[in-house]
Amino acid sequence: MPIDTVLAQEQTPPDARPRIPGQAADGGSPGTDGPVEERDLTFDGFRYTCRITHHGEPLTEPMLVLGGSSQDRHSWVRHEKWLAPLGQVITVDLPGYGTADFLPAHYGIDFLAATVRHLLTELGVPRVNLIAACYGGAVGMRFAQHYPDLVARLMLVGMTTRIPADYAVAMERWAVMIDRGETETIARELADHFMSPPGTGRVRKHAAVSRLVYQQIAGQTPEQLSKSAEHNTRLMRHEWYRPEPVPAVPSLVVTGEHDTLCTPGMGREVAATLPEARFLTVDETDHLAPVERIAEFSDLMARFCTDQPLDELPYSSRPETLGTAIAADHCAGTAP
């Protein structure tokens, strides 16, 4: 069975989910689909490509999605069915990723955050709903810290304030293995890191998504392998997280219920660094929650970006409220 067919199965029926204003009953657009545009842009000499799905009457600010290092601007196409009726959806291959130019490792997360700022300037977008997952979460956090006026809402997915120690050790080993051409071994190890191990808990489409991850990595071209190796070097050379101020905008931190790479505990730590944020887990998912429950995760993104309630959702835990402002209020309330 093709992987796309597997990923399309077992989604929550449309009538089982609360409807977002502006969406049709099936979660799609009440009218015709908006046009899709792709643009090549250049920042500091490096070409990169964005994908823009337009909508005539937006209900919220444009939604900018920054995916993980193994994703590209097309990885969120399935989610557009739920997001595009709400407004403009922007995805991007930043320099060093997807089909964009190769980016030497001495360019770090600050540079990628600046590239995102360049993207919005070129598109004439004043503010965005920023949805940032995994490695995109590190870029998204830095972007919010450096360009706070451009962020209307901030959603961080599978994000942590530190690279897990075992993953850091594995990256050094993978760098040697890439030089040796041992891609199948790397693919197996990466799939094991991204997916929760057997016995952790039920994860939707676990076997299918694991195969997808393996096939994607094992099938990389020499150019893609070169970018992957440079990405690993970039991770080891630059700060993943920097404790700088973050804008006090509506914020949501999300992890999979059974995420063993960026655990729920790590997600709570991220939420606690923000001025005020809600934190929740998506049921029956691990680190790849956006792929394992596409419809539900899309519904969550749509709800957050339109200020809809997140309580009592049938596919997630009840939100917890965390953050520096909450901690300060608590301390003030307990002071003698």
Number of strands: 9
CATH top level label: Alpha Beta
- Give the CATH architecture: 3-Layer(aba) Sandwich
Q: Indicate the overall shape.
A: globular
Measured distance between first and last alpha carbons: 65 Å
Strand arrangement across the biggest beta sheet: 1-2-4-3-5-6-7-8-9
Helix content: 25-40%
Query: Count of helical segments?
Result: 12
Domains (count): 1
Provide the low-confidence segments as ranges.
1-18, 25-32
**What is the CATH superfamily label?**
Alpha/Beta hydrolase fold, catalytic domain
Biggest β-sheet strands, sense, barrel: 9 strands, mixed
Protein architecture, described:
It is a single chain. The chain has 336 residues and is of the alpha/beta class. The chain has one domain (9-163, 244-334): 3-Layer(aba) Sandwich (Rossmann fold), CATH 3.40.50.1820. The chain is built from 12 helices and 9 strands. It has helices spanning 3-8, 80-83, 109-123, 135-146, 165-180, 183-194, 206-218, 222-237, 264-273, 289-292, 294-305, 324-334; strands at residues 36-43, 46-53, 63-66, 89-93, 128-133, 151-157, 251-256, 277-282, 320-322. A 9-stranded mixed beta sheet has the order 1-2-4-3-5-6-7-8-9, with helices on both faces. Residues 1-18 and 25-32 have low confidence and may be disordered. Residues 1-38 are annotated as: Disordered. Residues 62-291 form the AB hydrolase-1 domain. Keywords: Hydrolase.
